[in-house]
Amino acid sequence: MHDLVIRNALLLDGLGSAPVRGDLGVTQGLISSVGEVKGSAKETLNADGLALMPGIIDNHTHYDAQLTWDPQASPSPALGVTTAIIGNCGFTIAPCRPADRDLILKNLTQVEGMSIDVLRAGTRWEFESVPEFFGMLERQGVALNVAGFVGHSSVRTYVMGEDAPRRAATAAEIAQMKDLVLGGLRAGAIGFATSTSPNHNGHGGLPMPSRLADDQELRALVGCLKEAGRGVFMLTKGGQTGVDFLEELAADTGRPVVVAALLHNNANPRNVFDDLERISAANRRGRRLYGAISCCPLTMDFTLHSPYTFEGLAAWKPALSLSGKEYRLKLKDEEFRRAVRAEVTGTPVATRLFNGEWDKVYVENVGRPQNAKWQQQTVADMARATGADPLDAMLDLALAEDLDTEFSALLLNSDETAVAAMLRHPHSLVSLSDAGAHLTLFNDAGFGLHLLGHWVREKKVLSLAQAARKLTGDTAAVFGIQGRGKLAEGYAADLFLFDPATVGRGAKKRVQDLPAGGTRLIMPPLGVHGVWVNGERVADERGMRAELQRAHKLPGRVLREFLS
Ligand SMILES: [Zn+2]
């Protein structure tokens, strides 16, 4: 007898096969039968023609800290996600010495736009090492399956302390870091993650520690994957990191390399395609390289209190470590403004978030009623109307409102023809939701719903079967996730039931539900009918199931075994 049979569904197998009408049986958390399911069941659900696919695997999240206070990993499971990979870009919270806890949180605040009050109030520190962190998640439970990277910046801070964001490592320090990376991999990490991106700055405006690593350090640490015989190398690369160097690492270690963050930039429209072409060439030579792309336009809602949008600019550096009155004076400073203006309109840099497209920066909410006339106007409009330069117009409005003005900027990935070509590219990996991070700036945790609604139904760029494969089977294959990402007998019953005619993301709204009263943006799910993790239904038409939460049922697993 099956525990559950879902009848009359449009089955998308996660491998890209043509959809078929059929049933699916679940027994003890596993798929027990697919196609025409005979026999009785404790529970039967008529899908009435809705689509059923494997649960979405979100390979780029930052739930490391959030999971310690929110094992539900809100909002991902309600958006069809049944497995999340954490620790991306190397921004983990383990390993961490007790004395470094506040520093690690302050770095996260800066680099991933998480509120320090939220992190301090929420994060539970019942671990020091990576194995202890995985152990804690296991004891506490998780609503979805979680796999975690060993994070370079945390490993570096653990070994080098205050010097981590300041200098290259010595041979002895590299040896200590190797031990930590190997220990993490042997305890079940899914790989090793790092960042060389200039957008990644930590506390006090210092670079995130991994940015100080030289090639020798990177080679040694990525080499741990070969030594352990497992794991993926993921990095978010800055302009100075070439795909050729990454190909060398892939060749030396024989391990897959995931290259992030390939976002289309109107100021340098070829760059992302050049990178993808280099990645394809490496694949032709037998290496496993994948370009991590996003299917969502990158928009950020920000205030000048914490303008992540501009903090990667070299010219913004003098403002990064300032606060209060000094910071406001810097924003007023003519010299500072001149340098920022010159940089955003100067030679395009592929990894730069903002490139002077002032017609794509909106005044989302003014902070004072007398400025209501600028509501929903672009900064370009405002500049035209007042005869001011756009940067001056934005900064002056913000300063007049004690920096409370909320702006919304459409930064990257706004050219739909380009994004369509990236989605169709044979070596691209749909990724970069950044779920769990940048909570006040944007929320792309529902990237899968956007792919199925916008790119499949509205734009017809992918078929339903292709999109399901990109969100499940392809990702499972890249990361060696066993027994998931496919509708087949013996596979985990991680399932996502949805209506192809309505699936998508609702309008974004701001909610205040974080520890210490923090706010975040959410985009509610549309067309979601059911999400099952290891056979347990965690979400239905109304969202996360309250009865499951009341019963403290957390059906996810910490994944520690991966295919080599
Ligand atoms: Zn990231």
* Number of alpha- plus pi-helical segments: 20
The helix-and-strand class reads alpha/beta
- Mean pLDDT, as a whole number? 95
Radius of gyration over all CA atoms, rounded: 23 Å
- What's the multimeric state? single chain
Distance between the termini: 35 Å
Could you say which overall geometry the principal axes of the C-alpha atoms support?
globular
Brief rundown of the structure:
The protein has 564 residues and is α/β, with parallel strands linked by helices. The strands form 5 sheets. Strands 1, 2, 3, 4, 5, 17, 22, 23 and 24 form a 9-stranded mixed beta sheet that branches. A hairpin with an 8-residue loop joins strand 19 and strand 20.
